[in-house]
Amino acid sequence: MISLDEIRRARERIGDDVLRTPLVPLGTDARIRLKLECLQPVGSFKLRGALSAVRAASRAELAAGVVTASAGNMAQGVAWAAREAGVPARVICPDSAPRAKLDRIEALGGKVVPVPHEEWWQAMLDRGRDGVDGFFVHPVADEAVMAGNGTIGLELAEDAPQFDTVIIPWGGGGLATGIASAVKALRPNVRVVTAEPDTAAPLAAAFAAGEPSEIEFTSSWIDGAGGPALLPGMWEHARGLVDEAVALPLAEVEEAVRLLSSRAHVVAEGAGALALAAALRREDRCVCIVSGGNIDPDVLARILGATLA
């Protein structure tokens, strides 16, 4: 758990440089409310954690630049934060990352270092990669990053009407840990539910088994959530903060993308639609974290085109 004091310090570091994102109903359905992190300047919540971490570092730590390992969204946040700090950003990313995300990283001044998926995952475990120098900002497991993510939870506690459940996409766990830390401190009766694609759902498997366990991992169009395994230390966070972990079929996530487009007029990537897909299975009052909107245009066209077909 991240302390409430640390989350509040992260909010002071970030200041007004991130959007206080709106909380809106899903069309006319007031049971489901959407926290639109897809509206951040980089298209996802990741700017919160990136700015928190980079601004918490000293000038000496930043002297050689900043490095992260990311499939795209954290890379954009770190590139933004590094550009603001006046230092270079290097991004270790899987060579399967969507071209649209890589283009935006480079537009922000980041240098992309593409590697096979297994080597990208290892860079997260090792907190860096040989030959790629700089201050490493872990996309998930840095306390300053999780505290930055937790500022979303502060906003929910301040802005949201009564709700029963907050549903958060689980990628590495940094978003869920940050938000849940704040929500559990300020609204302890709210349930925390995580959502993963069922092709890559290590947290749901861990909850089912009572401990981390091996899963069969299959990559999919949902590139910002799920993974082959839990990152070190994240099970301990989840066990103390998460009430339920849900794994969702890809078809249900595609339907959530279509609903977000048609009923809320929102473009969401796969990870950003996961929470709504989980909420549609429930009957209680939910807040869904729409974590990002950086979807590959071809993927979006395929999903929306299925409605016409």
Low-confidence stretches: none
Helical region count?
12
Task: Work out the count of structural domains.
Answer: 2
Strand order of the largest sheet: 1-2-10-7-8-9
Which strand-content bin applies to the residues?
15-25%
CATH class of the largest domain: Alpha Beta
Strands, count: 10
Cα gyration radius (Å)? 18 Å
Query: Mean of the pLDDT scores?
Result: 94
Describe this structure in words.
The chain is an alpha/beta fold and 309 residues long. The chain folds into 2 domains: 4-44 and 143-308, 3-Layer(aba) Sandwich (Rossmann fold), CATH 3.40.50; 47-136, Rossmann fold (3-Layer(aba) Sandwich), CATH 3.40.50.1100. 44% of the residues lie in helices and 17% in strands. The protein is built from 12 helices and 10 strands. It has helices at 4-14, 46-56, 73-85, 99-107, 117-126, 143-159, 174-186, 202-209, 234-241, 250-263, 270-279, 297-308; strands at residues 23-26, 29-36, 66-69, 89-94, 110-115, 135-136, 165-169, 191-197, 244-248, 286-290. It has a 6-stranded mixed sheet. A 4-stranded parallel sheet has the order 5-4-3-6. Strand 4 (89-94), helix 4 and strand 5 form a beta-alpha-beta unit. Helix 1 crosses helix 6 (143-159) and helix 10 (250-263) packs across helix 12 (297-308). It is globular, with a radius of gyration of 18 Å. The chain starts with a helix and ends with a helix. The model has no long low-confidence stretch (mean pLDDT 94).
In short:
With 309 residues, the chain is an alpha/beta fold.
Topology:
Blueprint: H1 4-14, E1 23-26, E2 29-36, H2 46-56, E3 66-69, H3 73-85, E4 89-94, H4 99-107, E5 110-115, H5 117-126, E6 135-136, H6 143-159, E7 165-169, H7 174-186, E8 191-197, H8 202-209, H9 234-241, E9 244-248, H10 250-263, H11 270-279, E10 286-290, H12 297-308
Parallel strand pairs: 2-10, 3-4, 3-6, 4-5, 7-8, 7-10, 8-9
Antiparallel strand pairs: 1-2
Helix pairs in contact: 1-2, 1-6, 2-3, 2-6, 3-4, 6-7, 7-9, 10-11, 10-12
